[in-house]
Every structure is written in structure tokens, then in C-alpha cells.
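Narrative of activities, Objective 1.

The group set out to show that a structural description can be obtained from nothing but a protein's sequence at a throughput compatible with the screening campaign. Below is one input-output pair from the validation batch, recorded exactly as produced.
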Amino acid sequence: MRVSAALSTVVFLSVLSAATAVAQFGRVTFLVSDATGQPVAGAEVNVECEKGLTEDRKTKKNGKVTFAFADATQFCNFRISAEGFATQQLRLKPPIGDTQIEEVTLVEPTVEAQDVEVDAEGDDFHPPANIAKMREGIPLTDADRLPWLQKIAQEIDRWREQ
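Output recorded for this entry:
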């Protein structure tokens, strides 16, 4: 009977030890949606961890994707991207023995500055009479500014046609 009790204790401790080892795994679930809250299916989620783990996955129809980590002692960089949206980046440490939910909202990309060459100075569009007034410190009237504004509008139209 003592052997049976001892054997039961060993089996119990082995099962407990195995359960504890499994509990050390951490999971990170991403819920990816757009600015209206709709799930983004097919978004690419890339992970690169300090100790070499790299993995790429895509979100399902519900916008979710889950990564499991055997080593929750390292930081990981996550990159979430989808066509038509700005890429999001996160750096986090997976939880130990738990699932962490990260909600990510993808937004449209901002307009990036483009190379624009401007070779005009606003004063270059004033008629000679306005330039003479400005040199003498005489303020321009609205009537003085009208031909200047019309010339600037013409130049803008010319730029648009190019």
C-alpha cells in the first residue's frame, strides 16, 4: 500500500511538473481592425525576437492571429501591415503562462512629402508699381493686390497642367 501511495505521489508530481512546464508558454493574440472597428483579414504579422525566433503569419477572417512562445523572457518586435494601411510596429515581451491580447487599429497611410521644386518667389508676381510702393514702405491696397493674386492663380493653374 505504501508503494502504491508513493507511486501515486510520483505520478501526481510528474503530471504537475509537466503542467507547470506547459504553463510557461506565453501566447500573444493580435486582433487587427481598421479605423471603423472592422476586422482586417489577411493582414501580415511578422515577429522577430531577440533570441532568433522569426515568424510570419496572416490574420484570419476575424482579424485574429496567435503566436505561441516557449521562451517568454525575451522581447519581440512585431510588424503589422496590410495593403492600403500604414504599418504598425510593437515591441513587447510575451506573457508567461498566459495569453496577451493586443488590439491593433490599422489606419490609412499619411501623405508623405514629395519632391516639389518651387522656383518662384511671391513678390516676383507683383507688377512694377507694387514693387516700387513696397520699397518706399507704402502699404498695398486690395486693388493693388488683385493683379498679383490673379497672376499667382494663373501660375498655380500652369503647375497643375504639368
